[in-house]
From TrEMBL:
It comes from Methanocorpusculum parvum. This is CoB--CoM heterodisulfide reductase iron-sulfur subunit A. Pathway: Cofactor metabolism; coenzyme M-coenzyme B heterodisulfide reduction; coenzyme B and coenzyme M from coenzyme M-coenzyme B heterodisulfide: step 1/1. Belongs to the HdrA family. Part of a complex that catalyzes the reversible reduction of CoM-S-S-CoB to the thiol-coenzymes H-S-CoM (coenzyme M) and H-S-CoB (coenzyme B).
Amino acid sequence: MNNVVVIGGGVAGIQSAMDIANHNIHVYLIEREPSIGGHMAMLDKTFPTNDCSMCILSPKMAEISRHPNITILTLAEVEKIEGEVGNFTVTVTQYPRYINEKECTGCGDCVLICPIEVYNKFDAGIGVRKAIYKPHAQSIPNIVVKDNLHCIECGLCYGVCGKDAVLKVTEDRVETLEISASAVVIATGYTLFDPQKKSQFGYLRYPDVITSLEFERMINAGGPTAGNLRRLSNGETPKSIVFVQCVGSRDLTVKRNICSCVCCMYALKNAMLIKEHYPDCEVSILYSDIRAYGKGYEEYYERAINAGVKIIRGLPGDVQDNGKGRLVLPVENTETREFLNLEADLVILSVGMIPEPETVRLAKSLGLGLDEHQFLSSADMKLDSSGTMRPGIYIAGAALAPKDIPDCVMSAGAAAMKASIDVIRSEQ
C-alpha cells in the first residue's frame, strides 16, 4: 500500500506531492477544479521579488504532470476517509469532464467555435469563458472541459474536433473511486472573505469597487484585459486608486479577529505594479497597521513609498458616489489627525483569507479539530504544526492558517516528510 493521498492541487499540494513522489512513493493528487494550480495560478507577480507567479508555478505543474509516481485526479472531491495510519481508504467522487482525456490535445478548436459565454471563475468573475473551455493557457492537465450546466448542445464542438474527443452527456458520468493510502495530506487552501458583508464599502453596488483578486486578474497579461488597468464602469484608465486594507481581517464586527498575513504585502505589490505601468496614477493605501514581517518585506515597504505610493493610517467610512463618476472615501489620518475626503476612480478592497468550506466539511467528517476561526487545528502549533489529532493525516499550507507562498511551500515539505515516514513504517 505504497500510496499517499494529497487533497488540494494548489502550490502547497503540488509541493507536498512532489516531495513525497521523489521518495519513490506513489501519490494521488486530488483537485476539485479542472486544473491544478490553485490561487497562485491566478496571480500576476509575487512579493517581495516581483517575480512572475506562473513562471514559478508552471514548471512545478508540468513536472508533476509527467512524474511517474503521481496520479492527478481533477474535478474530484474526497467524500470520506476511513481507517487508520498505514491503512486508509479514501473515497473520491470523480465528476465528468465530458471529454475523452486520452484523445484531447488541448488545441482549443472547440473553444473558438463555441457560441456560449459565461462568467469565468478563474478570472474572478470579471472575464468570460466559453461553455467548453480551458481555465487558463498553462492548465494541467492540458485538456478542455465541457460545462454541461451552460452547454446548449448546439453540436458545433462535435463537428470541429478532429479527434472526436468531445463526449455527449450520456457518454460520461460521475464515478466513485476508493483509494488505499498509508497517509493523507490536506492542502485544501483557503477562500476569500465576501466583501458584501462590509456593505459600507459598496462592493457590487459600485462597479469601480473591486477585490484584490479581481485586480490581480485585471493587471495580469493573461487576464481578461490583457494587463490593461480599466474602470469597470466605463472602461477608462483610472487616474487615482485607493486600496482599503483589513476587509474581513482583524474585524470583530464580522467575527474575523485574525490577521490574514498577506494583505499588506500584496497591496504594496499591486500598488507598485500600478506605479510601474501608470506612473501618473495616484495610488493610496488606507491601513490600520502595516505588517511587513518577512525577509526583505520592510525594504519592500520602503520601495513602495519611494515609488510614490501614499500610505495613510486610517480606514474609511462609507464609500460614496460623488455624482460625477468618482468615488469618495472619508477617512481620518490617525497619525496627523487630518480629515480627508479621498476621491478615487477605482477602489480595491484587500480581502482576507477565510477557511475553505470544503475543508470544514471534511474536518467534521474526519473528527479533526477546528480552531475558533474554522481553520484546521494542528496537534501542537509549536512542536507539530503539520500534524493533526488523527495519526496519518497531515495539514499543509493555508488549510491550517493564513500563509504566504513561501510559508505554504515550507509547511508542505514538513507534511510531506511526515507522510513519507508513515509509508516507510507501514512497509516494514
